[in-house]
Amino acid sequence: MSKDYDVCVVGSGAGAGPVISELAKAGKSVLVLEKGPWLKEDDFFKDEMACCRRNTYTPNLEDEQHVIEEETNNGGWVSEATSESGWDFWNGNVVGGSSNFMSGYFYRLKPKDFRLRSEFGPIKGANVVDWPISYADLEPYYTKAETEIGISGHIIPHKHQEPRSTSDFPFPPTSEHPIVNKIDKACDELNLTSLPTPRAILSRPHNGRNSCEYSGYCGSYGCHSGAKGSSRAALLDGAVATGNCEIRANSKVYKLKTNNQGKVTEALYFDVNDKPQSVSAKLFVVACHAIETSRLLLASTGPKHPNGLGNNYQQLGKNLLFSGGGSGTGEFHYSKMDQLTATAMKTRGPFVNRGLQDWYFFEDKAFGGKAKGGVIDFLLRHPNPIAKAMSMRFNNDDSLNWGQPLKRDLKTVFTGTQDLRFEVFNDWLPTDNCFVSLDTNIKDKWGSAVAKVRVGYHEHDLKVGAFLANKAESVLQQMGADNIRSSISGSPPANLVAGGCRFGDDIKTSVLNADCKVHDVDNLYVTDGSFMPTGGSVPYTWTIYANAFRVADIIKQRV
Amino acid sequence: MNNRYSNFPDINRRQFIQAIAALSTSWPMTGMASLNILGDSHKDTYKNLSDPWLTLASVQEHLFPAGDSLEQASPGAQDIAALRFLRNMLEAPDTDSEEKAFILNGVNWLNDLSLKNNQTKFTQLNTENKETILRQIETSNAGSRWLSLMLGYLIEALLSDPVYGGNKDQRGWKWLEHIPGFPTPSVDKVYFKLGAHASAKRRTKA
């Protein structure tokens, strides 16, 4: 029976882009079904209203939402729809997905991250396992992503540097803000290794894309120059140019239909006019955001898969991961600087590009010996002025602030200091209290059950986060910052999600095999962050790109 | 449905529809593509005002007054065309209809209270009495929410891109020494003409 396409890909973000691009370049016919619209470079502006104040790139929560289940003080669970709470779990529903809006901090995992259980032993209450592949299996694809996506950086040897097959990045670091000199000096004094942060941002033109324009508005914003290594700019545009790839935007897949042999035959979706459509393909790839991927597979019941695709052993949606950690801030008051320094500190545009990995692994009695830590990244306070000003509407006693007092507060906060922030990334341990299921009450606007997400965390995550935040604060202290504070919590960051379809060798404990194929479905692969059994202690995007390049090579041999 | 509004007792559907109808006729959005900002010219925004805009402008100016003993040059609500911004946003296709109604009905509510307390409408009160009455309504949940929304729109008017009708001549950015990014949006590429809103619109048409 003839199929419409060789491969049908659901989603178009970082997990989808490499598969789409590699298969299209190999001459396979590829159809991409993306729920969101197709915005181009010409549609992206430094407009806080568009990026951050209104739902421009994400759905109205009344139309499409999640139900979030949180632990109560007495150990029970209470669920609330996000249309009620306003807690938005969408990241970027457009062609290229949320990679359009990332800050592009790019880190590889380290060899020990692939065997966390063997290296550090079990942790009570956590489902830590080793990966079915090793760092060596992924290394060539991390390297490939450096060129294909465009990753800039510079290698400085340090005790936790992961092995590399090339000596350095293909692109030099992006321009740096003068504050890095202060960070470097403080780290030197503290005997820490201040490391340049690799970024998925072009420091020089590449493959028809411009280099960074340094407007100073990067994270949360779509990139106008094409320098940001979004799936769209780096991969999809090239895939479409081959003539083998068709992208259908505004196409929401709601079910994968399987036959009596348990193979996927069709993707069912609603088109831009909300009309139901279907398309057949030899092979299907799902990569539409960790939570939504689990949701789609749960909804895709069939004769051989009565509980959803890949769920014959109740593993689907389980062991969802966010990122552990938190953030902190220190203030540098212009009044304490000479004018030249103040002017330099006010610079807007270049990146801070500094981070610490001194405690990626560490030994500490409080952690029972050797332990897994994480990374610290430094960044300036986000330049979004409306967000900054909004919190000043309220006084400390929750009364409203207006008139001249409000204006004085605004003037002080906007013109008095440069704020240096840090972010801590550490493992979000997989537990039985963090998973995706289908909500039994709430539907999206097309009538499909929305995802219910239980967002429990492991206490160990907070302990590691606090350890790292303390180290980061010591750097701010050494720099002479005022009003240093930080916050570590178990609140899940909605923009750093993985897991739910962990890969492994045993169908009874995992959803995908080592190739990221659903164990008992011959023609279905999952290539977004869902595959990760543990998350490592870095943002996931580079690993998602690399793994998708790896799986693309496997799929190429099959169609 | 949305618990944000459950504390506000008197949203009247019929009044609301009338208010919106009046709003639409007095504020045509067509034929403005040639302008480089959304909505009316600044001069006209504050000319011959009648309610609800007259009262809203007066509340805005009280919440965000011009000048300051410390900061002579600081702009006030009218200097940044905060009313034009508010009108544009209330007309934006994604603005919650209940929120629109809530803001517009708040004007009646405020004037009723003002007439009761001071036998005159809000705009006629002196600064001290304006402060008293706004602090009085702040003590109710609905009043606090109304003021918080008004402040929210004011802050957006102060610091959003001038294309949205506020931040006139970038006065908000200049006052707070804010360095904006580039490129900035044209009137054809404001947020509700992109992305989710644009595709929603296509759906409606088809």
Verbal overview:
The complex is a heterodimer of chains A (559) and B (206). Chain A has helices at 17-25, 48-53, 82-85, 116-120, 135-150, 179-189, 231-241, 290-299, 339-345, 385-390, 403-415, 459-478, 541-556, and strands spanning 5-10, 30-33, 67-71, 77-81, 194-196, 245-248, 252-258, 264-270, 276-286, 318-321, 324-333, 354-356, 361-364, 369-372, 374-380, 417-426, 434-443, 449-455, 482-488, 498-500, 524-526. Chain A has 559 residues and is α+β, with helices and mostly antiparallel strands. In chain A, the strands form 5 sheets. In chain A, strands 1, 2, 6, 7, 8, 9 and 21 form a 7-stranded mixed beta sheet that branches. A 6-stranded antiparallel beta sheet of chain A has the order 5-12-15-16-11-19, with helices on both faces. In chain A, helix 1 runs parallel beside helix 13 (541-556) and helix 5 (135-150) packs across helix 13 (541-556). The mean pLDDT of chain A is 97. Chain B has 206 residues and is mainly alpha-helical. Chain B has helices at 13-26, 42-45, 53-63, 82-91, 97-118, 127-138, 141-159, 171-175, 195-205. Classes of the chains: A alpha+beta (559), B mainly alpha (206). At the A-B interface, helix 2, helix 10 and helix 11 of A face helix 6, helix 7 and helix 9 of B.
